[in-house]
Amino acid sequence: MNFFENAGSGPTGPLSLGKLRQTLIRLEDTIVFALIERAQFAHNAIIYEPGKFDFKDFGGSFMEWVLRETEVVHAKVRRFASPDENPFFDDLPDAILPALEYPPVLHPNNINVNPDILRMYTQEIIPAICRPGDDLQYGSASTRDVECLQALSRRIHCGKFVAEAKFLDPAQHDLYVDAIRRGDAARCEELLTNKAVEAQVVRRMRRKALIYGQDITIDGEVETKPRPESPTGGQGSRKIDLDVVVNMYEKFVIPLTVKVEVDYLMRRLT
Ligand SMILES: O=C(O)C(=O)C[C@]1(C(=O)O)C=C[C@@H](O)C=C1
Question: What are the Chorismate mutase domain coordinates in residue numbering (predicted)?
Fold first, then answer.
């Protein structure tokens, strides 16, 4: 996506919080569909255990190896040169394409919460959305994991742009400057938090997980065939557990976005 067209009123226009929220809403769809794709395969715990597969010069897990190999290719086509992209690995090759000029929308920073995202995803989300056991679909499961992780990372690191938009808002600017100068992270968090918006996000995610996680017949009816393999059971024909998706947003996605926003703001005047 051309992030800068979506984020503001043109390549050099001011950041718009409304447009950034639209981007976050679109990423909700990407995240729900990616989780549904992953949930069709078993947990396959072995792919998350470091050292279980013998890779030369790589001591991580099978899934991390797939993630790293994917990032190697993406780095070569300059994915991580874009300020809205943050890699999970830092020893990646240079791009084979010449550098693009990006408008200096963000204050220079190296904030990257991908280690937190990786931990939350493999330890909390995967066991909750996948049926237990091993179906040997290691490649399929890992490539879906990469898609989930990249979508979550984009969503959470969008917090940098959201924070910049809030910092530049003339109605709030002086309050942020004062809190940042005093090193008051708690005050920054208080200023940027909007509980009403968070409640809307969570409600919308529940609806999306419900609606996108259904099979629709040719007549527009909802299939009600039970899915006995569901890890939580009792959710009938749903492809994904609604509570897991809601919980993931409440406990991890929004708090990590807030962490990115606060970290970004606390370094905004350096
Ligand atoms: O929309 C915003 O204002 C954001 O900062 C994003 C977000 C979120 O993660 O969805 C985070 C903090 C706010 O309290 C509300 C929502």
Answer: 142-261
